[in-house]
Amino acid sequence: xxxxxxxxxxxxxxxxxxxxxxxxxxxxxxxxxxxxxxxxxxxxxxxxxxxxxxxxxxxxxxxxxxxxxxxxxxxxxxxxxxxxxxxxxxxxxxxxxxxxxxxxxxxxxxxxxxxxxxxxxxxxxxxxxxxxxxxxxxxxxxxxxxxxxxxxxxxxxxxxxxxxxxxxxxxxxxxxxxxxxxxxxxxxxxxxxxxxxxxxxxxxxxxxxxxxxxxxxxxxxxxxxxxxxxxxxxxxxxxxxxxxxxxxxxxxxxxxxxxxxxxxxxxxxxxxxxxxxxxxxxxxxxxxxxxxxxxxxxxxxxxxxxxxx
Length: 309
Known about the structure:
The protein has about 300 residues and is an alpha/beta fold. It is about 30% helix and about 25% strand. The protein has an eight-stranded mixed beta sheet. Helix 8 (about 190-195) packs parallel to helix 9 (about 220-230) and helix 9 (about 220-230) runs parallel beside helix 10. About 55% of the residues are buried.
């Protein structure tokens, strides 16, 4: 069975680089978008907002599916754009994923791609369809990105000086299951990973992977259901280790923790909790598709190579 291999890393960003802001999921508050663009501009980047970012459709989408897919495709295929940063999550990335022109995007070559939450569906698509490493990190119009200095600095350092952020570790991190494991990072939002099962371009194997998991607004029984679905589908077969992020608005953490231990403890692999990524007050940037060592006892995830080349 296939073992996860490291994916192709795009080049790091340089001052003056143009980055496109796209909205593949939910509608974007204009004031927050402006504030996020100002942050990117303050980093000496040249942010451009895709044409349909401020559109609204059905109340919960940033424009119709074709428009959102077109924005992503055109931004990616623009030779002047060095990176694509999502504006926010919510819902809708799965609806537009199959409408993007992946053939044209492959031909355009590797670029930086940043997002989390609902954007997990696109992280999976970039990995499977393009063999490209991506960044699980904050989005331009996300409240955490606008308000939390550590969240901003984690992304800025990863984009410009990725060798400076080769190890992810938090004072809160501790072993749920002790041990040490090596593998290639993948994952994101639990409910999105469960929803990807059975889709035409779903990841064929997780063997040899270091799985990142986090979620928001899912009660323990719903986390249980999503984890059970992944287990029953064989998606967790051969996973080398698991890194857990935040579980905001998912109920009392001790109940969440007990559910996670119940469903993941039987894998027989190291599991570290509260590693500081996801929907929490701080959202640290984590590269996906990069070889790393998970040390649950030390509470660290250390990358063999920088996130970007």
